[in-house]
Amino acid sequence: MAADSKGLLIAMLMISTWTAYAAKYRVIPKSTAVLLGGTITMKCAYDELTPADTVVWLGPPNFKLIATGKAVNPRFQRYAITGDHSKGEFNLAIREARLRDEGNYKCSTFGVDEAEGLAELTVVEPVPAPPDIDGGDGPVIHGHSILLSCVSYGGHPLPRLEWYNGTRLVQSIRPSEQWQMEDMVAKLSIRRVSRWENGVNYTCKADQGFPDLVKPVASSRVLDIQYPPEVFIPRPSIFVKEGDLANLTCLVDGNPTSTVTWRKLDHHHSLAGAERGNHLILHKVSRYDAGVYQCTADNGIPPVDVGTVTLKVRYPPWIDPSMKQTITVQYDNDGFSLDCLAEGNPKPHIRWRRKNTNLYWDNPLRFNRVDYGVEGTYECVATNEGFPEVSKETKIDVIGLPHLLGQDLAEVLTVQSGGTARLGCRIVADPLPGRISWIWRSKQGIENTLHDGLNGISINDKITEQEMSSALTVKHVDIGRAGTYICQASNIFGPVKRNIQLEVEESRTSLFIIIIATTASALALMATMAFGCVLKKRRVTRKQRKPTAVHGVSASRPMPPVPKYIHATSTIDSGVEDLELHELDRALKPHPPSRGRDDKEWKSVGLAYSGLVHSTSLPPYSTVERQLPDGEDNIRHLTTFREDGPTVPATPSL
């Protein structure tokens, strides 16, 4: 011991002596660690060393002199000075490191700062086993607390203990210098554990701080936290097509594992499906399987939890079969409607259409007023997405009073004389009338029933399922055919009729002939009157000359006007126009007197035929009369025609 102190004193004196010759560190010793039993080299090198300079190594305990130059103290058999000394390298090599080798080392020479060459060597003895964890090794009810203890045995230096929740550091404990125990303990308290701590990995890691030499060791504890079940429904609503498979799922979070049971709400019978844990399997789903299903989870830790799944079954439209195939409605009914009931999923769109048409109406089918045009077959059509449409037929049968078609046509028909008039009458009814009858009313109000084949009249009747028609044809129309024609029919609900007035116009040719005849008659009358005046004047003159009177001739009535058939003749004797009158075709005609009777004077012209002139066989003109038929009938739903002239329609033609 005294020798070591003497050497150290000499070395220090030498360093003090050679301070002026300052060598410089090229490599300064650094603190390092070595694994127990391993080899370590602590490097030290100088620049500007002289042959007189001496490099010394000092070490534990208490900076003992280990080596001077290349010479090593014999007490340090496992130590050696290595390196190229000519280059100023004086490295300290230690083999088979032991715990006593741990401490502070210094490489120094004359003229260098003593503090610069100081380095610490740590000898590491690995922890023999991972730490032990105590606590939390059994189930813990949620809401309770847990105390976890971590104990690390042995190792040098003592490790640092760290608690991790997963990968998150929650606690770290380092050994203090006053720690005298060979074991390291770290405790972790967890208060009021919840379901979120279940399955969490709490890890205790022992780290000696030299990862290049020895890896940290750790132990873990997975917490078993028991908590009541919680139900989670991934698909609260499920749509399934009828006939397909349905899988109802009820996910449960709970510890321990829960028992899941299924039931259908508002359904007291056993389920048709198969329960497989958290799943309810329904094979070949029908529309009657639709509804709300409830799953119940129970693991023995109250409370239990429930969840619901709504099963919606998609199926094609279905029309209520109770809808009648035939519905009878009375004619002229107001506010009639027909409702169609249909089901389906999705909810079907319900419309109405007339059969064999593309004309649609909304449901319910409404009619503001029912007529015979409403009658027919209607289809209730129901459609929804993903399925073909379905339909059901209903026939609307309209019954009631007969109805005449074509009420908007003219009620007056004008036909030229000699033409043909055609009248039509169409009736719809249910039930159909027995027949359609025709009546003609004259202008005097006299009514006659018309029959087929009577006086140039023809009647043609036709009957269909719900319609009856009658066509009346009048040929060679004259003024006597004018009047009112009545078409009428009736059934159990009552009668119906329509009048149409037929007017007859004279043709232009006939009118022209009448005008000529009238003019000629007027001219003849004027000539006759002039001739009568002349004749009377002559008679007066004769009486003045010869006052002999003709007796026994008298006229019972005035002479009729001279017709147009008077002819003038000249006599050879006097040159005076001698005329006689005689009867020709019931008309008076001038005739010359006979030349063979000398007892008659020419003055007696016109008196020789007193039997004709004064005959009472001729009726006065006022007694000749003709009664002409008249009258006109406004017939509903008539069509009128005329030939040889324009036609005026009254109703649709049949």
From TrEMBL:
The membrane topology of this protein is: Single-pass type I membrane protein
Q: Which SMART domains match?
A: IG, IGc2
Keywords associated with the record: Disulfide bond, Glycoprotein, Immunoglobulin domain, Membrane, Signal, Transmembrane, Transmembrane helix
Report the leader peptide range. Answer: 1-22
- Determine the domain of life of the protein's source: Eukaryota
According to its UniProt record, where is this protein mainly located?
A: membrane
Give the InterPro entries listed for this entry.
Answer: Cell_adhesion_signaling, Ig-like_dom, Ig-like_dom_sf, Ig-like_fold, Ig_I-set, Ig_sub, Ig_sub2, Ig_V-set
The GO terms describing molecular function are: cell adhesion molecule binding
- Which PROSITE patterns does the entry link to? IG_LIKE (PS50835)
Q: Which residues form the Ig-like domain?
A: 23-124, 128-220, 229-300, 321-397, 402-505
One Pfam family name is: Ig_3
> What is one Gene Ontology biological process annotated in the Swiss-Prot or TrEMBL record?
cell-cell adhesion
Protein's name in the database: KIRREL protein
> From what organism does this protein derive?
Branchiostoma lanceolatum
